[in-house]
Amino acid sequence: MYAISNKRVSPHEREGVQQLAPQPRTILETGLADNFLGDLVCKHLYDAGVLDMVQLVARLALTGAVLEEVLTFLRKDRRVEVLGQAGGQALRYGLTERGRNSAREALARSGYIGAAPYPVSAYRTLLKLQTIHHGRISAHDMHSSFSSMVLAPSMLDQLGVALNSGRAIMIYGPAGTGKTYVSSRLIRLFGEAIWVPHAIAINDAVIEIFDPQVHKRLDDGEQQNGLLLNEGIDRRLLCCERPIVITGGELTMEQLDVRYDPFMRQYQAPLQLKASNGLLIIDDLGRQRMTPGELLNRWIVPMEERHDFLNLGGGRHCELPFDMILVFSTNLNPLELADEAFLRRIGYKLQFGYLKPGEYERIWIQETQRLGIHYDPMLLSYVLRELYDAENMPLVPCHPRDLLNMACDRQRYLEGSGPLTAQELEWAWRNYFVQLDFLG
């Protein structure tokens, strides 16, 4: 959904995480119980049949030193046996009959087979270290990042102040005025890398955090030897861009809490947990299956207290930092969605409106350049006068892109060429907007 950028990890970023999450050298330093790691190794061996140390390191994201300790424990427990060397190189490991029974029992309790999870206590500290609420965005940053967009300077300044505040933001206004387009690009202002765990462990429950659809990995420039490395950042953490999660009318309340899949016997992370240290946009507020009140009430405590309580089922709860920029976007009247008491909790309400003719012209020119077609000021004057003014239609930011694309579509269909004509733009207009002539 979003392209990987050319961001790199700064020494300062690496140093902070290095101090918090050094490479574990023993089972104790992983923060996980030996039985837990033993069960996870057995599940991997049950899944693969036979694995050597290099393969185990890659699968569990732990160093050879830690895995040697786990394998020694499993061999003493008669669950794992050495099956000899592969091609005269690394030793291979497989399960005994006792080990296979143990693996099946472990899979019955939890279907997770992946990298060793990161302990939730350390994850809380990691989220706070990597907070997105550092308040370092300047007016120069805002205007430079959005220099190619047609957006009023005053609106950019409002957005910048809102981002620095750390409070939730509501963006409202008519459809097509650029609310989603602008809010989805706010993440570009946060260029720091962050570290995201493959999964976290809350007692015996494992919740996958890393999602390749959300988290874009970065090359941190470090070539690690997993068998020998005693230094460096914990391999259970992946270097990523700050995430952005956008959800709209498809959002359900179930997606905002930990979900347990009884068939896979795995826990799924809620959307806000995947968006941690990043940006979460609730688009089309008021179009969800639940009422706006139900959805907004879900965020009252997280917004005010900066932490969230996740329900793991069976009376189990877990508290985690609520560290993200939360943006609500809607084309409905905010006063119809929530009462004033709730709206006060949202620090900033920003209204997106229609364009002025000069702003519309700038977007029109940008779109002609993008499409590689000739810009004709007389044609634009015709569109504004004979179409917009004649039908009393407001100037909306998305219109130039859509109208020009549709006119080009027709030209290609008719195998035409050359500059667009007024007739082609009028045809696009009639097909773009709903025509109500049949009512008369």
Automatic annotation (TrEMBL):
This is AAA+ ATPase domain-containing protein. InterPro entries: AAA+_ATPase, P-loop_NTPase. It comes from Pseudomonas deceptionensis. It comes from the Bacteria. Residues 165-352 form the AAA+ ATPase domain. Residues 1-21 are annotated as: Disordered. SMART domains: AAA.
